[in-house]
Amino acid sequence: MPHVRWILGWIYPNDLNRVFAVMKWGNKKPEAGEFLLSDIVNSRLGRSVSPERDKYITLDQPLSHYLRDKDAW
């Protein structure tokens, strides 16, 4: 199963389940758009692994950089 990575840009204040994010699936080109936070949490297909927050990541570029450059991840 390919590795899925997410960079959450923001959560909509009027709908806390809806987020704007950049998503990279395996070696495919990153995509940006609106996603449901519940879908991200449940995206592990029932496995006992849940999404984790990277406490040490520092994004020094705008989200568009990670969207254009798949190797920046």
Short description:
15% of the residues lie in helices and 30% in strands. The protein is built from two helices and three strands.
If you had to describe this structure to a student in words, what would you say it looks like?
The chain is an alpha+beta fold and 73 residues long. It has one domain. 15% of the residues lie in helices and 30% in strands. It has 2 helices and 3 strands; from the N terminus they run βββαα. The protein has helices at 37-41, 63-68; strands at 4-11, 18-25, 31-36. It has a 3-stranded antiparallel sheet with strand order 1-2-3. A hairpin with a 6-residue loop joins strand 1 and strand 2. The radius of gyration is 12 Å and the shape is globular. The two termini are 18 Å apart. The mean pLDDT is 84.
> Helix and strand succession?
EEEHH
* Low-pLDDT regions: none
Average per-residue pLDDT, rounded, comes to 84
Distance N terminus to C terminus?
18 Å
The tally of structural domains comes to: 1
Q: What percent of the residues sit in helical stretches (DSSP H or I)? A: 10-25%
Shape: globular
Number of strands: 3
Strand percentage lies at 25-35%
- Largest sheet, if any? 3 strands, antiparallel
